Amino acid sequence: MSxxxxxxxxxxxxxxxxxxxxxxxxxxxxxxxxxxxxxxxxRFKVKDALGALIAEKQWLEGESLGHEGAIxxxxxxxxxxLGPHHLVAVGxxxxxxxxxxxxxxxxxAAIVQDLGGLTALAPLHQPHNLKPISILLAQxxxxxxxxxFDTAFHCTQAAVEQSFALPQQITELGVRRYxxxxxxxEYITSVLPQYAxxxxxxxxxxxxxxxxxxxxxxxxxxxxxxxxxxxxxxxMGTRCGNLDPGVVLYLIDELKMDVRAIEKLLxxxxxxxxxxxxxxxxxxxxxxxxxxxxxAVDLFVYRIARELGALAATMGGVDALVFTAGIGxxxxxxxxxxxxxxxxxxxxxxxxxxxxxxxxxxxxxxxVSAWLIPTHEEWMxxxxxxxxxxxxRAHAASVLTH
Length: 402
Description:
By secondary structure, the chain is α/β, with parallel strands linked by helices. 40% of the residues lie in helices and 22% in strands.
């Protein structure tokens, strides 16, 4: 019987999943899908390895599955689909690992409780990432579960990059720059030698509803646009990005806003949505003639260009840029404008290649190369989960033979 690994990425009202099948030494995607609208009108869609829709279901308005119901429904569905494969482990995306968890870890109740204590650092993600873990721990205690952290990739950054200019008694509580989207950056780093083998100084642009940039030197994260929380850095779909902390004090003093109202403003009402007043979706903004939509796009590109300059400075230059994630992979106009703003670095864009969505979008003689590489965080999680599975089995075998 062949083995399978399930990867889960849970949001506040969604559950995305990928099923990876062990085939000889390779892990290959078998199914991908998601359950959305878990508390309102749930929707279920599943695609096979070729991207063909193989199953879908729509619940009535007002029906609620919740995360527990979603896990139960998914489990029943997978039992029918696994066939000769046996589910041996579940890997989870967990946004925040704090200072302690700098590598993937096999989960138990104590670790889940510890990770729950980091909710204040990632309020939109952490509690929801942990829900399926707790459900499966209660229902299937013997099933190996592994947490993979978006912060872990950045643990190689120097202290001067991680630190805020705050009193030591504050920073010792964990108030520091962490960086996020680490699973995406780790995946890009793992495959980049296939594209730009000689590139030592790389800036990866993870541009999606959540957006950040990372400076990677010799395969290690040295700086990131995101900091203490995932609201920092670039303007995003609904998150404001970099903000003078004095603005928060002003909102409290002058507008009498409380903590929850400010949290909602910074995380859910700002970014592209807040600036445009139209949408958080870059596709909608690019199609719009509204001046505020244009300004939101202009601001997004400007802030990328500005952050790119800062990250280039940390490495003393750049050998390659990599665009990835939803906007990075599917918005040639954004790639074009960013590359044009980066011409001072020595980047010469190949406009035809960019429009065609080619892997290399810079000219062959460009001093700095530019690439379009789709990210695959789920594959990265599956790989980490398999590695921990193998270590667990090796340890068990060692105990039995001694």
